[in-house]
Inverse folding.
């Protein structure tokens, strides 16, 4: 037990306190709810380019990878996350028979920059080139580089599948892989789900990846990274919605002959300060709190 650290003689402790660096709360990913067939029930609604996604059949998606049938050996195989998107290890990207069987048209490798893993992945890329499969890599120095790569990986997957659908009448199929298929590549797939689907928040995206590939590992750093990217996506969508609304209002005003500019919202923070110097924002944040860590000792 840690020794007690003396505090000021003018204050007394009101509760137990910890002498350590503050850490963010853990993000818990609950298991998805099950339907009457005891299968995970995860609904996704099209958000981006719905004309393309509407042509994809999502019927009985989860039933192709039932959790009760998962075996340890399946970690060496790639699993279907969406009808056009697979997630797996580097070994699956070298499996010529499997690539031909599933009709993979693009492989996307996520590798550590400058590591021995980069050289190992060259074999998978050469195999894709031999088979005439489009190949694309993302080189990362660490987990934090992923959040910068997410927009480009999502665009690459989406554009490839849509282009194949337009040119051949069938959507392309993309395999996203890393060395194990359980970490960085799983983060790329989860980010794709978040950005592409209306209902795909970061919790549901991780649930779907785990339901389809049971061995994926979203550690605390990856969970917080996906949560941060989800906040960015929400902010972008809100700004886009406000821009569309403003454009519509401006167009309606021009149609009605009203060209008067709308007044800007004034900043009232300085005007709303009370006599103690506390603003309205501070009242909303701290006004309802009753707990204080220390209190003055009675003299």
């Amino acid at each position: 037990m840690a020794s007690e650290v003396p505090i000021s003689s003018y204050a007394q402790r009101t509760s137990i306190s910890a002498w350590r660096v503050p850490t963010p709360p853990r993000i818990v990913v609950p298991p998805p709810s099950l339907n009457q067939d005891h299968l995970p029930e995860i609904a996704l609604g099209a958000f981006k380019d719905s004309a393309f996604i509407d042509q994809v059949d999502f019927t009985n998606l989860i039933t192709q990878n039932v959790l009760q049938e998962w075996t340890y050996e399946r970690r060496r195989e790639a699993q279907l996350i969406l009808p056009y998107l697979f997630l797996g290890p580097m070994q699956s990207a070298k499996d010529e028979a499997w690539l031909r069987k599933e009709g993979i048209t693009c492989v996307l490798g996520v590798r550590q920059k400058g590591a021995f893993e980069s050289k190992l992945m060259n074999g998978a890329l050469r195999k894709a080139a031999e088979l005439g499969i489009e190949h694309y890599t993302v080189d990362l120095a660490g987990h934090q580089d992923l959040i910068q790569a997410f927009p480009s990986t999502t665009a690459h997957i989406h554009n490839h599948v849509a282009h194949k659908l337009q040119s051949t009448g069938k959507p392309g199929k993309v395999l996203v892989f890393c060395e194990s298929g359980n970490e960085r590549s799983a983060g790329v797939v989860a980010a794709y789900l978040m950005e592409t689907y209306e209902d795909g928040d970061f919790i549901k995206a991780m649930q779907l990846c785990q339901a389809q590939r049971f061995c994926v590992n979203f550690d605390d750093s990856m969970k917080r990274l996906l949560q941060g990217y989800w906040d960015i996506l929400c902010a972008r969508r809100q700004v886009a919605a406000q821009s569309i609304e403003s454009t519509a209002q401006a167009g309606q005003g021009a149609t009605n002959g009203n060209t008067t500019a709308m007044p800007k919202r004034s900043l009232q923070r300085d005007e709303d300060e009370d006599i103690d110097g506390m603003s309205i924002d501070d009242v909303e944040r701290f006004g309802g709190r009753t707990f204080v860590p220390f209190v003055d000792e009675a003299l």
In short: The two ends are 32 Å apart (CA to CA). The longest helix spans residues 220-255. The chain has a mean pLDDT of 79.
